[in-house]
Amino acid sequence: MISHISTTPFGRRALTLAHVASQANVKDRPPEKAVHKWNIFRAICTAKNRLGVTERALAVLDALLTFHPETVLMGECLVVFPSNQQLCLRAHGMPPATLRRHLAVLVDCGLIIRRDSPNGKRYARKDRAGEIELAFGFDLAPLVMRAEEFERLADEVLAEERALKLARERITICRRDICKMIATGIEENIPTRRNGQGPADWMELHELYRGIAGRIPRTASCQILVAIGTELSLLADEILNLLEEHIKSQNMSGTESRSERHIQNSKPDSLTDLEPRFPESRGAIVEIEPKPSRMPERTYPLGMVLDACPDIIDYSRGGISNWRDFQVAIAVVRPMLGISPSAWFEAQTALGEIEASVVVAAILQRGEAINSAGGYLRGLTRKAEAGDFSLGPMLMALIGSRKREKQRA
Q: Distance between CA 394 and CA 402 in Å, rounded?
């Protein structure tokens, strides 16, 4: 049993009031209180940012705990006294200077207490029975005394991480729902105004969505993400109400031919599922046989296309890893841009499926710089038919524009 313990550090190290407070706290520790050292260590690792301790300092604390022979920390003497050499080895070969710096961090954070001997060495004196009578080294008593605090901080950190994850999931789901519902509204030509109220058209709703989604930073606090998620959720509810009201206003007992057309459009494996047919006002319904998707020889690499037109990724289900994913995203974007089925068919005929899709992605990337996406695509189609259009300069111009924007930022 220790009759007197050291309270001041050896050498030129100064004694601070924080060190005195740490030592005063452990005086009231009941000897029978016991904690599992590795459970407390995991709690400290989780709450390391709250405690102000670094990862390297935690590696040193891990090494110190291995010098305590018991898994449970309890009793009056919780001092470990390894030499710097042994401590460096258990800290995965940490240099001595680095070890001393991180030991100081642990002391300043109140996780351990120095119990320095008269000459600064670490050792223990034992009685005739072999029991430790006096030990000089690092006292682990603060881990026992502050165990409840560490666990509370760890729970708070885990709760914050969970709330942040839920906020991000909510935003992702709302963005997916909004994009696909807007695509459905454009494809089915659903009106957006009811009794003279509501948005002018689906493009206005799309611009509203882009304005909200554009405020999402790369790294954001939970409060910011919750606020943005609430806005997106309200917008998604508004769009869903438009679709539901349209369904209620329709005569659900349609003709047999109409039902047959719906059945034909329900093939889940066809890329043309998301493509609208020519509207009935233009004459009889023309069904276009889908051509097998293949990459023409002159098409540029997919990575280069995504580097030039990264906005198309926002309209994919789980990212774009191949040309099929790219075409599915284009099928969602094309009606949003107001490109008619006839303009799209002409572009596919002149350019090919893949290159026509790349042109649509480039139009999306340029955004407000193009007033009429359908007219712009028809103009490029006529140039392609005359042999005056090349996809490469368009992609290189977009890549160069993005690089200049990054340099200005």
A: 13
